[in-house]
Amino acid sequence: MRPVKDEAVTVLEDALGPSSLGILIVTDLPSQFTELRHKLLSYASYLANLPGEQLEILTLPEAKYLTGWSHGKEALKAGVYDTMKGSYYVNCGFYQDHVLQSTSDHADDKLSLHTTPNVWPSDDVLPGFRKTFEELCTLIIDTAVLVARACDRYASAKIDGYQTGYLERVVKTRSAPGDDEESMPNLQLIGDDDWCTTHIDHGCLTGLTSALYVDESTQPPIFHRSSGSSTLPPLHALPSAPSLSTGLYIKSRTSAVKKVDIPPSCLGFQTGEALQLITGGKFRAVPHFVRAGDNDHGGRIARNTLAVFTQPNMEEIVESERGLTFAEFSQEVSERYG
C-alpha cells in the first residue's frame, strides 16, 4: 500500500469527484489481507447458519438492530424490509483501544442506539470469529486513514473553509460498526436489487471488500464443537459470481447504473451522505445495490462481504445551514426508512 502522494488527489477526483463513477479501488494492501478476508467472509456463513437460539442471543432489538445480528429488520426502502440479507454489526471502538466495544459512552438516550456495546458469539460457538473480525477491520481502517488523507487534500483545495485533516480525524476516531453481511442463499429472482435494496450509506467513508461466493449446499457451514479447534476452516469459494449479472451495482453521478467488480486482493471505498452534506456536494453519496441475478451454478449460493463505515462524532455539525448534528441527521435517516 503506497503512501499518499500529490497524484493521489487527481486519482481521487476521477474516482469520487462530482463527475466520477463514485468508487475508489485501493491496491497493494498488506500481505495478510487476502487470508483475513477469506477467513472472515467464511465466518459470515458459519454465523448465519447458527441455531436460532444462538442468533437470538446476538440480536439486540433495543439497539434497533444497529449492533449484533439483524435479518429482515432493515427497511432500506420505506415499508419494504430487506429479507434477503443478514447483517452482523460491530462497533469499531477497539481501533482506538482494544478494550473498547463502543465508540462512545454518551448517556443521551437518543444517541445510545449508535453506541451500544458489541455482542460477540463465544469461542464455544464461533472460535476465532472475534479475533479475525477485529484484525480485518483494523486493517481496513488503517487503509481508510490513507484514503481520508487524500480526500482532505482534495477538499482543502476545492472547498473554502474546509477543516484541515477533517476526514482523517473522523476515520481515526469514529469508525462505525463493521457490517459483516451474508446475502441469503437465493434461487428465486425478486428484482433488480433483490439481494440488497438500493440505498446510500449515511456516514462519511465506507470501505468494502469484494464478495466471497460460497455454495452452502456442498459444504454446510456448521461448526461441530467436538472438533476442539481454535478457529474454523475457511470455506471453499466459487471462482466467480454465479452469473455475470450477480454483484454490486452503483448509480453514477450521471445516474447510469454500473456493475462494480472489486478484485479479491483489493478494497473499494465509497462516500456517504454525511460527507456530501459536510462538503456541500463536492463529494456525493453513492447509491448502490446488490443484484442476485441468475443462479447458473446451482446449489445454495451465499454472497458474503464486509463493509466498514466511518462517521463523525454524534455532536458534530454536518450541515451548517441548519446547524444539524450528526446525531440529528442519523435520526432523520432512521425516520426516512422507518
SSE blueprint:
Layout: H1 6-16, E1 24-26, H2 33-48, H3 52-57, E2 68-71, E3 85-90, H4 109-112, H5 129-158, H6 166-173, E4 175-183, E5 196-199, E6 205-209, E7 212-215, E8 247-251, E9 257-260, E10 267-271, H7 273-278, E11 288-291, E12 301-310, E13 317-319, E14 324-325, H8 326-337
Helix pairs in contact: 1-5, 2-5, 5-6
DSSP helix fraction: 25-40%
Tally of separate helices: 8
- The low-confidence runs, each spanning 5 or more residues with pLDDT under 50, are 184-192
| Number of E strands | 14
Helix-strand makeup class: alpha+beta
N to C succession of SSEs? HEHHEEHHHEEEEEEEHEEEEH
The profile of the biggest β sheet is: 8 strands, antiparallel
Radius of gyration, in angstroms, nearest whole number = 19 Å
Binned strand content: 15-25%
What is the average of the pLDDT values?
Answer: 81
- Measured between the Cα atoms of the first and last residue, the distance is 40 Å
The coarse silhouette is: globular
Task: Offer a few descriptive terms.
single chain, 338 residues, alpha+beta, 8-stranded antiparallel β-sheet, 8 helices, 20% strand, globular
Description:
- With 338 residues, the chain is α+β, with helices and mostly antiparallel strands.
- Strand 13 and strand 14 form a beta hairpin.
- The radius of gyration is 19 Å and the shape is globular.
- About 3% of the residues have low confidence.
Short description:
With 338 residues, this protein is of the alpha+beta class. It has helices at residues 6-16, 33-48, 52-57, 109-112, 129-158, 166-173, 273-278, 326-337; strands spanning 24-26, 68-71, 85-90, 175-183, 196-199, 205-209, 212-215, 247-251, 257-260, 267-271, 288-291, 301-310, 317-319, 324-325. The radius of gyration is 19 Å and the shape is globular.
